[in-house]
Write a structure and sequence with these properties.
By secondary structure, the protein is an alpha/beta fold. It has 2 domains: 3-70, Alpha-Beta Plaits (2-Layer Sandwich); 121-272, Vaccinia Virus protein VP39 (Rossmann fold), CATH 3.40.50.150. The chain has 8 helices and 14 strands. The strands form 3 sheets. Strands 10-9-8-11-12-14-13 form a 7-stranded mixed sheet, with helices on both faces. The radius of gyration is 18 Å and the shape is globular. It starts with a strand and ends with a strand.
Amino acid sequence: MNYYKYTFAVNEEKREILLALIGEFAFDTFEETTETISAYVPEKSDTEIDPKALEKLKQFVDFDYEKTFIPYQNWNDVWESNFQPILVDNFCGIRADFHPNFDKVDYELLINPQMAFGTGHHETTFMMIQAMQPLDFSRKKVLDYGCGTGILAILAGMLGADPIDAVDIEEPSFINTKENALLNGINNVHSILGTLDNITDHDYDIILANINRHVILDSLPTLYQKLNPDGTILFSGILETDFDLIKKALNEEKFILKEKNLKGNWLCLVVTK
């Protein structure tokens, strides 16, 4: 799939405000650097990004932006240039094969760079893994919703989960999850190409959802039905500025918010029924 990348240059003090504002648009992934915010939108959804609406945001915060077309065949190079090893305490380390081994870590995941999209969310990945650490995954039924490269599903397998379903709407994610599971010796990850509607199973003990605000809000009723009465959902991909909106939706669906963690501008929520 082709994407458009919008690169926003904004003062660091105003970055959180701009993130909240552009979060209302059809962007489905964001990356932050020390100087810019990058927002990605699939080519087919780019018509939903109204340039005039973006210009109106300048009355709230001063910024400049440029738009770049990124063909699908360039994603591997982008992935490799952007992906950095992730080390969560001494619990889990994630690296590509061109990175050196971690010195001391309980679980080490090797992820081959077959796709770029989503790898910039290091804060959200970090917090999801951190929130997984105290949970009991042994023989638990797990759903990784929006699996990307399969990182969370593979870690769940290493922690003893069985069975594991991993779903994503992107074909490269579907393929990459299968490849990375095999690469790490995890043979019980069932990779599914599609949406939540393609998940026919219920009674999940743990659901891992590192996606974005829009998808989470749309999926809450279905996720509630798919979660065991004593199950747990980990949510991330949520901006801090969207917390009140997410909390209200969780309450309406009778979820119970057990824990809220923050890293940078991003949240990770631990939720039960």
